[in-house]
Design goal:
Chain lengths: ~160, ~290, ~750
């Protein structure tokens, strides 16, 4: 067992885990942050996507013990209790959620992408999201929702710049 | 698909890393980005006694461009290559090939060294390394050695790396701006491993004939290869529809692809010919 | 007053989204129970053989392992999994035992269950179990299995478990009479490939045994919890009242999830065995290997028509590669394929035999549009092959043979055994054909047929389909007015991702004339109702929705009756509005002031009449003949669903189903080698569509022909989008290249081989 300390959604945590425990399983079962989902455990489906130090990554391919001093954001960290965020509201407006299992992975990937590239084109969005699998929606409403959410990220980027 | 048990070490120097590998008696494995290794562990296709994480070793993640060429540290990630605007002009073929690797979130973690050491016969990095006569720097207990990429890959998922060695850098020879090049890959979906891929380039002599032709291929053999017999068809000749066709035909003859779940051997052979033709046509037409 | 039908028909944003978007869903792996242990399953690595040695000693000795369960612990006789749908006495010998005993018949069959402190330790222990299996020759394809050289079930003497026959008119007579030149006969062999639903969430269960109350709770139920409870009760020797199956959030079903699998016995059994909660979460490798496979059929079909294209008869035989056991709903696809082969077309004489052949592969079950996707591929390909040979335009061929609206209701072929007769209920198939051709731009696009443009060959295809839905026999709902005036609605339908909660609340809100915010929906779990039938066969809107309407009517009746007593007037004169009951002379009482026993109701909706949504799809493809790559340049779907409850959730289902259909047509294939080993054991090899593959899809939903068979007028609509895709795309590829595909998937290699054979 090893000790690892890192920041999750703005909160410092300290866990004791075997080296073989993935970040996905550590988040879900040690920290009970079950919003991040595990769909394949071999890095193909993207359901486990979280942000580590600003980058969208597949948490099933990361060992928890690699996360010393890391800053991690999960879907819980980009959600509020009251209103839906602009990205979530766009998802709801476009009916992008059916079973909801892939949804956190898509939200995290879209959030990471639009944070870095608020002007991302449809082609770029589609290309980036090709790394997340969805079985229910056929993707078209997801792309529409992410396109719609750009405005909020563009506004944020503009006000950050001023 | 929970991972098998292993110990974990996180050294800060290359010497420590080498010592840990040596002490593992062949049962320790290196962890860089983990994008290839962790799935292997999840399927329990490997059961190492220890993972040696090289993530904290300084000096392995830089991109340097100098007179000796393009130096990529072993821990350079795909996203680093994508973000380096100098690289796109310094080695456009490298940049074009790497654009096909995997997906956004994998590109944030996957590394150059990891891909070379993993040696998937359909991966872009090994293919580009072989196509461009790159040189790989390896260190082990006995010190460092240089291995030309053409000698580095022995077979599927097999390289010359000893269990106590690791890659520190790969160097691509300098790229003349006048060079003609093309990259063509065919995969079932965006980001998938290639059913076949071609990285081709040539220079032009004073007569406007191709010289120094390089045709590197992935996905159609047990490791990336340069197709020297096809290269010989083009060398010394003008590059036009006829010579391109002849080169492509020779290329298709020169490979021995497997039958597998994604395609028949005949199909892959024909596909390779088509991709050689298209890569060389791109090379001619590129402005 | 809330206007009637103010919610039904509206694109109400989904209630479920509020938790799912925040990562606050409750999928089974999200649950953590005190003292919970974890299970891993040892599975056969041999496709066919006898178990000679099974030694669990070393596994039991591993620290952290609590138990290793084998057939010896389950006891004799080992329970089997019965058929839930269309049971038949002849199929009983082919039922799957809940754990392998004596023989193994497919790679993946459960042999032992390890229970340990963590999932990782349980998996470590699997390697320590010593298993020796004496191999027997495996049958992988139906051709081998049919010879009966190697029997899966020696006691039955045959691998041909059962043959269904679908009959309409007199096909033999029609063929026999077709002796002159005015008739045309074409015979073809076609096949569809094994693939599977592949939900994003794998299966999972938690069993919890309360030894004091002798009560078993199972989390992770889906689709048909009441039926599963009944099966488990018989297998485990408990009364149904001692078992509850709890349905939470579920990551997709598509017909696969929720059927009774071996684990649905093994995990609850394990929980009782160790007297601690036991969780099992299927991993993706197991999922591809062991959840119900589907769609592997090969056929020989003969079509008889006049030279003008008028179809007179179809006959043929179909073999279904059913896998090693006949599982709970394995009969549905072979039955639907035969019975609904004709789709929306007029085929006056039909004789199709559909045989279930057992093989040493994973057992099969339903996947969205079971048997229908396959039938459409076979039928629509036959149509274009025949039309092409006769020089008839494919649209004209279909126009001539589609049933007109005056011919509907129209009888489908009668199916035996387990006699089934069915009718197409309502519709105008020519209307959706015309609308589809118009929206698609068929007149212009068909001019591109076979043309080489920019290095690619262009082609177009069209196909018409029907979707059977609203499977009976009934559904139940109940309602309770709570102390705060809200209404709790309990329904036997289950959530699989289809927006069930929102649909149900829309229907309940309109029926009760209350705002949606005042209604809470509870679904699926056996704790909510005495009996429920679940979500399958596109039934939950019609059956669950109609049950809710019945419960609402009963609730209003009960409230009126109680209010009338209180307010001293006739019940029929009471006006109900926004939680108040008002008498003709203006006296008012709050519903919540009435006796609680009057503030409840139950409702049941029964029907054995299926509904048939229908439509037409068209596709434009561009094929790179050198690489075999096919781009779907445009895909247009027109569907009539009778009554639209929520246009956006419907639209989303249709788009999703079409993309699944495109995956079935181009990408997805569960490939076995000749030794019975599955080669596509991960998502790197079993390919699913991604966001870049099929962006060009246009869907038009309409509701011009309600079903006469239920109070909503609705028709089940969850599967239609998938059904015609294979036939339409294959026909488009045929028109582009002048080749005749007869086999799926249309992978680049197969397309190339068709051109370069």
């Amino acid at each position: 067992m090893m000790n690892v300390a890192f920041d999750v959604n703005g909160r410092q945590v300290d866990v004791q885990v075997e080296p073989r425990i993935t970040l996905a399983d550590c988040l879900r079962h040690d920290l009970r942050l079950t919003g991040t989902h595990v769909g394949c455990e071999h890095g193909v489906c993207g359901a486990c996507t979280v942000m580590v130090d600003g980058a969208a990554v597949r948490s099933c391919l990361i060992l928890a013990v690699q996360m010393q001093d890391a800053k991690i954001i999960t879907v819980e960290g980009i959600s509020g209790d009251d209103a839906l965020t602009p990205l979530q509201a766009a998802f709801r407006k476009h009916f992008t959620v059916q079973c909801g299992f892939c949804t956190p992975g898509f939200l995290m990937t879209a959030h990471a992408l639009l944070t870095d590239e608020p002007d991302a084109s449809e082609e770029r969005i589609r290309d980036v999201l090709s790394g997340n699998l969805c079985r229910c929606t056929g993707y078209i409403p997801i792309i529409q929702a992410v396109l719609d959410a750009r405005a909020a990220y563009q506004n944020q980027a503009r006000s950050a710049a001023t | 698909m929970k991972l098998p048990k292993f110990e974990y070490a996180n050294p800060t120097t290359l010497q420590e890393a080498v010592a840990l590998l040596a002490a593992g008696s062949g049962n320790a494995m290196l962890l860089a980005g983990g994008q290839s290794l962790v799935p292997i562990l999840a399927f329990r296709l490997a059961t190492p006694s220890m993972l040696v994480d090289i993530g904290r070793i300084a000096g392995l993640d830089t991109i340097e461009i100098d007179d000796a060429g393009i130096h990529l540290g072993a821990r350079v990630r795909w996203c680093d290559i994508e973000a380096d605007t100098n690289l796109a002009t310094a080695h456009p073929l490298l940049a074009a090939a790497i654009a096909h690797v995997a997906h956004y979130s994998i590109r944030k973690r996957g590394t150059v060294g990891g891909s070379l050491a993993h040696a998937d016969p359909a991966a872009e990095m090994p293919g580009i390394a072989v196509a461009c006569d790159a040189e790989i720097t390896i260190i082990g207990p006995a010190g460092s050695r240089l291995v030309p990429a053409g000698n580095f890959f022995l077979g599927p998922l097999t390289t010359v790396l000893a269990p106590d060695e690791l890659i520190t850098e790969i160097r691509f020879p300098p790229w003349p701006t006048a060079r003609r090049w093309g990259f063509q890959e065919f995969a079932r979906r965006r980001g998938d491993f290639a059913l076949a891929g071609v990285a081709a380039f040539y220079d032009l002599d004073s007569l406007g004939h191709a010289v120094n032709t390089h045709i590197g291929v992935i996905g159609v053999n047990d490791r990336p290869l340069r197709l020297t017999t096809a290269e010989a068809v083009l060398d010394g000749r003008a590059v036009d529809v006829d010579t391109i066709t002849a080169t492509a035909e020779m290329a298709a003859q020169a490979v021995d692809p497997p039958n597998d779940i994604h395609g028949t051997s005949r199909y892959r052979r024909a596909l390779l010919g088509t991709l050689v033709e298209r890569a060389l046509t791109d090379a001619v037409n590129r402005t | 007053m809330t206007a009637l039908n103010s919610y039904v028909g509206q694109a109400v944003e989904r209630i479920e989204d509020l938790r799912l978007l925040r990562g606050r869903g409750q999928f089974v792996d999200d649950l953590h129970l005190d003292g919970m242990l974890h299970a891993a399953i040892l599975r056969s690595a041999i496709p066919h053989g006898r178990i000679l040695v099974l030694d669990t000693t070393a596994a039991l000795a591993l620290p952290g392992v609590v138990a290793v369960i084998t057939a010896a612990d389950v006891g004799s006789p080992i329970p089997t999994i019965p058929l839930r749908l269309a049971p038949q006495i002849d199929l009983v010998p082919y039922e799957q035992p809940v754990i392998a005993t004596g023989k193994v018949r497919y790679v993946g069959e459960p042999i032992a269950v390890v229970v340990a402190e963590s999932a990782a330790i349980a998996e470590d222990a699997l390697d320590l179990i010593v298993v020796e299996i004496g191999s027997l020759p495996p049958c992988v394809d139906t051709g081998t299995a049919i010879t009966n050289q190697s029997l899966l079930f020696e006691e039955t003497g045959t691998n041909l478990a059962l043959t269904y026959t679908a009959v309409l008119g007199d096909a033999a007579g029609a063929f026999a009479a077709a002796t002159t030149d005015e008739f045309y006969v074409r015979c073809e062999r076609l096949d569809t490939q094994r693939h599977t639903a592949t939900t994003m969430e794998t299966r999972g269960l938690i069993g919890q045994w309360d030894s004091k109350k002798q009560h078993l709770t199972v989390y992770g139920a889906a689709k048909v919890p009441f039926a599963s409870r009944a099966m488990l009760a018989r297998q485990i020797g408990l009364p149904e009242s001692s078992i509850d199956l709890i349905a939470g959030d579920v990551g997709g079903g598509f017909g696969m999830r929720g059927e009774f699998y071996p684990e649905d016995f093994l995990i609850p059994f394990a929980a009782r065995h160790v007297n601690r909660p036991v969780k099992w979460i299927e991993d993706r490798r197991e999922h591809l290997l062991t959840c119900n496979h589907a769609r592997e059929f090969d056929c020989e079909i003969e079509l008889l028509c006049r030279r003008d294209g008028t179809i007179l008869a179809v006959r043929g035989n179909v073999n279904g590669n059913i896998g090693a056991y006949i599982r709970s709903n394995a009969t549905i696809a072979p039955r639907n394929l035969a019975q609904c082969f004709s789709g929306p077309y007029r085929i006056p004489n039909i004789n199709i035999e559909s045989t279930m052949v057992v093989t040493n592969k994973t057992p099969t079950g339903t996947y969205r549009g079971p048997g229908r996707f396959e039938a459409d591929f076979f039928r629509e390909r036959m149509f274009d092959i025949v039309a092409d040979d006769l020089g008839i335009d494919p649209v004209a061929f279909r126009r001539r043979n589609l049933l007109t609206k005056d011919e509907i209701p129209a009888k489908l072929a009668t199916l035996t055994p387990v006699l089934s007769e069915d009718h197409l209920d309502s519709g105008d198939y020519l209307e959706t054909l015309d609308r589809c051709l118009g929206e698609f731009g068929w007149a212009e696009k068909t001019k591109l047929k076979g043309r080489l443009i920019g290095g690619r060959y262009h082609g177009v295809g069209v196909g018409c389909f029907v979707e059977g839905g609203a499977v009976g026999p009934r559904e139940n709902a109940r309602m309770v007015v709570e102390g705060d005036g809200s209404v709790s609605v309990y329904v036997g339908s289950t959530m699989v991702g289809q927006g069930l909660e929102t649909i149900c609340v829309q229907i309940a809100a309109d029926a009760l004339e209350l705002p949606m915010e005042q209604i809470r929906i509870f679904h699926g779990s056996t704790t909510y109702l005495h009996e429920g039938f679940g979500s399958f066969g596109s039934r939950s809107t019609v059956m669950g929705g109609s049950a809710i309407i019945a419960a609402a009517e009963n609730l209003k009746h009960n409230i009126r009756t109680a209010a009338a007593l209180r307010l001293n007037c006739a019940a029929e004169d009471i006006i109900l509005e926004a939680g108040l009951a008002t008498s003709p002379d203006g006296n008012v009482v709050r519903w919540t002031e009435l006796p609680p026993e009057n503030l409840q109701s139950a409702g049941t909706y029964s029907s054995n009449q299926r509904t048939y949504a229908y439509g037409t799809h068209a596709a434009h493809v561009a094929v790179d003949a050198k690489t075999g790559h096919v781009e779907v340049v445009d895909y247009v779907a027109v569907g009539d669903v009778g009554r639209v409850i929520n246009p956006k959730t419907l639209h989303g289902q249709v788009v999703g189903a079409i993309v699944q259909g495109l995956g079935s047509t181009f990408l997805e294939h569960l490939v076995y080698d000749t030794e019975g080993q599955l080669l596509t054991g991960s998502l790197a090899d079993y390919l699913l569509p991604t966001a870049t593959d099929y962006p060009n899809i246009r869907v038009y939903d309409q509701e011009n022909y309600p079903s006469p068979n239920n109070p909503l007028g609705a028709k089940g609509a969850g599967e239609g989008g998938l059904i015609p895709v294979g036939g339409v795309i294959a026909n488009a590829i045929a028109s582009a290249l002048g080749v005749q595909p007869k086999s799926l998937p249309m992978s680049p290699s197969r397309v190339w081989e068709l051109i370069n054979f």
